[in-house]
Amino acid sequence: SALLKRKLEEHLQKLHEADLELQRKREYIEELEPPADSGTARRIEELQHSLQKKDADLRAMEERYRCYVDRVHTVMQTREPKQRPSGGAPPELHTLRTQLRERDVRIRHLEMDFEKSRSQREQEEKLLISAWYNMGMALQQRAGEERAPAHAQSFLAQQRLATNTRRGPLGRLASLNTRPTDKH
């Protein structure tokens, strides 16, 4: 028990020293701190109050956000089975997809046929235009030959006429007929 009393006295002495040290530190802190007037103390209290209010608002917003996220999850879970029925797609959907593919193929074939017929029509138009032009040129040459007799023309005019007949569509046959067949 004497040992316990001695330990108790030592602890009381240490406690007393620690209390004195604490009091000295409080005095030192009070010396370092500027004197607080009532305006700054009130301002500090207001700021602390607004900070607490903002913290409460933030917690409330977080709670609402969690609630919204939970609602979205429940809606997604309820919608998901409707979007993905068990056992695959219904047969109506499968038949509609195959019909759609067949129509797409048919449309592609029709588009290709249209392009072919259009190019063929353009070629036919070009051939008709060139045939009409050639026929007109041949008729013009014949009319020119009929108007001017060969004996009344100069030598140079006769050579031009022969050259023009050779250049036309029927020019080769006409130039063979108008050329003399004498061979030396």
UniProtKB/TrEMBL annotation:
<protein>
    <submittedName>
        <fullName>Protein Hook homolog 2</fullName>
    </submittedName>
</protein>
<feature type="compositionally biased region" description="Polar residues">
    <location>
        <begin position="175"/>
        <end position="184"/>
    </location>
</feature>
<feature type="region of interest" description="Disordered">
    <location>
        <begin position="161"/>
        <end position="184"/>
    </location>
</feature>
<dbReference type="GO" id="GO:0030705">
    <property type="term" value="P:cytoskeleton-dependent intracellular transport"/>
</dbReference>
<dbReference type="InterPro" id="IPR008636">
    <property type="entry name" value="Hook_C"/>
</dbReference>
<dbReference type="GO" id="GO:0005813">
    <property type="term" value="C:centrosome"/>
</dbReference>
<keyword id="KW-0175">Coiled coil</keyword>
<feature type="region of interest" description="Disordered">
    <location>
        <begin position="78"/>
        <end position="97"/>
    </location>
</feature>
<dbReference type="GO" id="GO:0005737">
    <property type="term" value="C:cytoplasm"/>
</dbReference>
<dbReference type="Pfam" id="PF05622">
    <property type="entry name" value="HOOK"/>
</dbReference>
<feature type="domain" description="Hook C-terminal">
    <location>
        <begin position="1"/>
        <end position="168"/>
    </location>
</feature>
<feature type="coiled-coil region">
    <location>
        <begin position="1"/>
        <end position="64"/>
    </location>
</feature>
<dbReference type="GO" id="GO:0031122">
    <property type="term" value="P:cytoplasmic microtubule organization"/>
</dbReference>
<dbReference type="GO" id="GO:0051959">
    <property type="term" value="F:dynein light intermediate chain binding"/>
</dbReference>
<dbReference type="GO" id="GO:0008017">
    <property type="term" value="F:microtubule binding"/>
</dbReference>
